[in-house]
Every structure is written in structure tokens, then in C-alpha cells.
Specification:
The protein contains five helices and no strands. The protein is an all-alpha fold. It is extended and about 70 Å long.
Length: about 120
């Protein structure tokens, strides 16, 4: 017997593959979205907040390392360590801006040495 895979796909208007950014504010409503936006702009992004919490958690685990976790806890801890290392690796691959004015000046000097056409007359 011959197997026939007949699976037509019909895309009506607005029914096809759609790519859309889902902003967190659309899904989870905070008590005051204005407050949430201010915190994100003035204090720290979600990524920065999670990074601080991850660093704190790893420091706490290191301070009580003599205590053993169950298999699930060990697995979660290993996942967290891997995620933190992956994030560090990705950040290291980026070209961040210098931390201070002296580092910026040193970078400018290095760029002018490497690319002489950047030197102004």
C-alpha cells in the first residue's frame, strides 16, 4: 500500500506565519506600569536584576557548600552556573564601551594607531 502524505497549507490573509515581539507589559500587568518603566529605566533592566540575584545565589551556595543538595537542586545549580558562564562569554565577545574617561582615551589612542586614517590633521 502506498502512503500518500497530503497536507496542503492554506494561508488566508493575516493567518500565515507571523513574527511579533511580545512586550512583557502586555502579559503581566503590574500595579503601576509607570513605576515598572521607571525602575527599568532608572535602576536596572531585568537582565541586570537577574544577574545580581544569580551572583548572590552562587555566593550563598559557595558559602554553604559543605551542605549537599538533592539531585534536583544539584541539577538546577549546575544549570545556573552554566547560564552565568554563557552570559559572561557572550558579554566578553561584545565590544563594550570603556568604563571611564582614561580607558576611553587609551582606546582612542589605540584606534588611531591601528587606523592611521582616523588621525586628524
Amino acid at each position: 500500500m502506498t502512503y500518500l502524505n497530503f497536507n496542503p497549507q492554506v494561508h488566508w490573509p493575516f493567518s500565515g506565519s507571523v513574527t511579533q515581539d511580545i512586550h512583557p507589559s502586555l502579559l503581566l500587568k503590574a500595579r503601576s506600569s509607570d513605576t515598572e518603566v521607571r525602575v527599568l529605566r532608572e535602576v536596572a533592566s531585568y537582565g541586570k536584576q537577574i544577574g545580581v540575584l544569580s551572583d548572590l545565589l552562587l555566593a550563598l551556595v559557595a558559602s554553604v557548600q559543605h551542605k549537599k543538595f538533592d539531585a534536583d537542586g544539584e541539577h538546577a545549580l549546575e544549570q545556573l552556573r552554566e547560564m552565568v558562564e554563557d552570559i559572561k562569554r557572550i558579554k566578553a565577545q561584545q565590544n563594550p564601551l570603556p568604563e571611564d574617561a582614561d580607558a576611553a582615551r587609551a582606546l582612542i589612542v589605540a584606534l588611531k594607531e591601528r587606523f592611521p586614517e582616523l588621525k586628524t590633521t
